[in-house]
Amino acid sequence: MTTTASASSSTGEAGVLSTSARGDIHRWSQTLIPTTREAPADATTPSHVFMVRAGLIRQLAAGVYDYLPLAWRSLRKIQRIIREEHERIGAMEMLFPAFEPMDLLKQTGRDEAYGDDLFTLTDRHGRGLALAPTHEEPIVEMMKGAVTSYKQLPLSLYQIQTKYRDEPRPRSGLLRCREFMMKDAYSFHLAQKGEGGLDAIYDDFYEAYSRIFTRCGLSFTAVEAESGPIGGSASHEFMVHAESGEDKILVCPVSGYAANVEKAEIGERAWTFDGDASDELTKRHTPGMPGIDLVAGHLGTDAAGMLKTIVFERVLKDPDKTKYVLAVVRGDHEVNEAKVRDAVGSGVRLADEKKAKADGLAIGYVSPCMIGRLTGTTLVVDPDAAQANAWATGADEMDHHVTGWYWSRDLGVDLEKAKVADIRNAEEGDPSPRAEGAKLQTQRGIEVGHIFKLGTKYSDAMGFTVLAEDQKPRTVTMGCYGIGVSRTMAACVEMSHDAGGIIWPAAVAPYHVQIILMKHDDERQIETANTLAQELAARGADVLIDDRKERPGPKFKDADLIGIPVRLTLGDKALDAGGVEFKRRKDEGKGEVVPIAEVVDRCISALESA
Length: 610
Prior knowledge:
The chain is α+β, with helices and mostly antiparallel strands. The protein has three domains: 246 residues, BirA Bifunctional Protein, domain 2, CATH 3.30.930.10; 139 residues, YbaK protein (Alpha-Beta Complex), CATH 3.90.960; 98 residues, Anticodon-binding domain (Rossmann fold), CATH 3.40.50.800. Helices cover 26% and strands 27% of the residues. It is built from 16 helices and 33 strands. The strands form eight sheets. Strands 1, 5, 9, 10, 11, 12, 13, 14, 23 and 26 form a ten-stranded mixed sheet that branches. The chain has a six-stranded mixed sheet with strand order 2-30-29-31-32-33, with helices on both faces. A hairpin with a 2-residue loop joins strand 27 and strand 28.
């Protein structure tokens, strides 16, 4: 399931302007909009630069920001869209505490999974607490005491709450914070399939997310994704298209297939272990050479001419029975742990280096030959590494490699144990998995939403069952659905700006129309501004009147900086002609004079078609 939408798409049934409430009217002189010409020294992304300069946010500590009035107005509009679309699919809002007991996280193992990313503390009674990064454990704990029968399911609940993660390197303003605003929803089901099952509700949330981000005016793609520390069997990320985005996604230009790097499949690739072994196998001393490129240069080849063997261990209930997995890729490729897991059919993790060395594995110098030397070891080879040419690889001895290594000759009978499978990260130019002959292309994006089919991961860990129709206990199946609310606001800026500042999508702009008085104390300009503001507000538009005792030049620069969609300028020349200057923020050049009697309709039309 893949969806791509653009900012030019329909803004949804609800439209940009409220039809049930009067718009707000505020004066610049009575609010706080501390614009500045300088950006913070560490600001590198457009959203960080412009949101600080436009007076939307101020840093309080590393990765912690104040939301000033303009930002808070935009956040509330994003929240309103989220609430409307969640109610449309029957999800009910509630609120959990920011704290959660460490004992709950220990039940699911996420105290270790999150590790140093958790903000933790101990209360005066010695009880461990964490500032919640997500709320899977608290909601399961609550549901265990409130839901006991299949008759109460399915059920979808959500909250909009502040979340906390101790990012090691907070950066990019609101895109990578330690404190951030998030919407998280959870659904509960008796089964995966069928009416009211997880699959059906997951699809409802998928469509709701598509409507939310379309209504926010965002150009985005929904991509297949890995579930990460949240867990689950399937997930999708919603990625906003932005050249400055931290995330890389791979797309097929023919089929529309899209996935993040961790999840992207690669199409069929030819492979063979057969071939004449013409080069002599030679052991080479390679001491003190960190990095594969340095080793390759010393051996007279490049990274693509080397085999890289990463050692994993299977995740088993009995830790004393370690079974290793050797994952082999070409030296210029990266092993994908999730694909290795799928290839061997069980959980895997990087091998403990100390234990692996004690078992005879020379970590960093391992070759595929170890398949025949360690009982119970599995060998998985990526197709690009399963080629008949001569390879350079580890020599299974510290500080040594070999050249002239061939699969057919040097693995011998153990070659029968090798399994060939897609186990590496996809790259631009790889074959598309959905269209023969097509190549994957790279796009940059910003993740604003992520949905997961959790299955029974948390229910199993925390013992959450209900009585089924046959009066027998059944483990509850779950889904999880997150939106970065503050991150979505920042993504709007990343996607839509120019050299002068922000260009807000109309639906989430702090105000819809900005009225600039060329002379702050001119009675005719003041009266006209008040009349237009009242008429616009009656039509559902939010209006900001720039009534500051300031010269026109700085007012125009500030107007471009804060990015309100429509600007009306009241000056003597236009008023003498019976009009006002109308200009959309996204249009270049000067505005046009529109008759006063027509300007409100012109504003509303411009906003609704934005």
